[in-house]
Design goal:
Elements (H helix, E strand, L loop, with lengths): L1 H36 L2 H10 L1 E3 L4 E3 L11
Antiparallel strand pairs: 1-2
Length: 71
Amino acid sequence: EIDDVADQIHREREDLMDRIRELTREIRLKHLIIDQFIPAQDYMKVERRADWNEMTQDWMIPNVEFTGNNM
């Protein structure tokens, strides 16, 4: 029984490590895209204005609807 629990813990740990690696690759790709296509000055402006919304668990940029870039 102890071996079964140890095996389960090991599998869960491996699954978590795989997820961490996947998220790390995704973050690196997003940073690469941002660095290549968005000027650093503009990126910093957007980052300063962004607020974390606890209810939606998402970043919000105030007044984005007035930018003329709505989709």
